[in-house]
Amino acid sequence: MDTNAYLERIHYHGTPGVTLNTLAELQVAHMRAVPFENLAIHYQQPISLDNDRLFQKIVRNRRGGFCYELNGLFAHLLQEIGFSVTLLSAEVYQKDDTFGPAFDHLTLLVELDDIFLVDVGFGDSFTQPLRLQQRSPQVQGTTAYQIEQVGDIYIVHQKKLEEPDGGWEPQYRFTQQAWQLADFSPMCHYHQTSPESHFTHKRICSRATAEGRITLSDQRLIVTEGASRMETILPSEAAFLQALQAYFSIQI
Questions:
Q1: What GO molecular-function term can you cite, just one (predicted)?
Q2: Angle (deg, nearest 10), helices 67-81 and 20-33
């Protein structure tokens, strides 16, 4: 891997060390520079969990991806720097109050003086590492996160602090069982091809900003800054492609 090219892609200009400060800086830089997006699925561009192909797509071609791609390649970057990284299978919380299947999501554990949950591939989620064993809320901006442990299962919960009546909502659950990137290939194929996968239903492209988030959800352009939210309906496919270029520097 060309580590310098990857660091340039995410606009990281420091000297990376195996420290919590570097880990936090890399995570937020990645989430602001590399969008969470499923455009390949909708433009007939097959996704392969091969590190060289992921590097070509995300770094050389300046695209984004979904969890298997983003966290898979980010894990490789962290390992190249010297971090101890474990790939985890996570089950995503569903609207019917259940959790999805195993390998529905790929997330990461990084071991330093403590164990940290790191994730650059879940879209609108935590932008700083979370301490795995901390049970009290961990606040990041206008959102709080809390990790619940039930036996050997960990559940990540999220709460929007600007919504006084809002409660804690689960995001996903996982164990500390270690996996290889290839183990996620069957579910990666499922999410690219199955009509039951939400990724095949609509296009999404989203990245964090210093103030909030910018998201393209089919023809809706959504810009959030703190508690402020502005939504615009794009009138055409041409307008969608123009927004991709303007906000994400992506050309299909």
A1: acetyltransferase activity
A2: 150
Q: Which domain holds residue 167?
A: 3-248
| Catalytic-labelled residue, pool 67, 76, 104, 191 | 67
- Cβ pair 91, 102 in contact under 8 A: yes
Give me the CATH number covering residue 148. Answer: 3.30.2140.20
- Please state the rounded mean pLDDT for residues 150-178: 93
- Percent residues over pLDDT 70 in the chain: 100
Q: Pick the catalytic residue from 30, 76, 105, 191.
A: 105
Q: How many domains does the chain have?
A: 1
Active-site hit among 104, 119, 157, 205? 119
Check: pTM over 0.85? Answer yes or no.
yes
Task: Report the chain's C-alpha Rg in angstroms.
Answer: 17
Q: Tell me whether residue 114 is one of the annotated catalytic residues.
A: no
Query: What confidence tens digit (pLDDT) does each residue in 183-237 have?
Result: 999 999 999 999 999 999 999 999 999 999 999 999 999 999 987 899 999 999 9
Can you give the pLDDT at residue 161? 87
What's the angle, vertex CA 139, arms to CA 134 and CA 145, rounded to 5? 60
Beta strands in the chain (DSSP E): 36-37, 84-92, 105-111, 115-118, 130-131, 138-140, 143-150, 153-160, 169-174, 204-208, 212-217, 220-225, 228-233
Query: Could you give the C-alpha distances from 157 to 22, 93, 118, 220, 230, in angstroms and in order?
Result: 25, 10, 14, 27, 26
3-class DSSP state of 237: helix
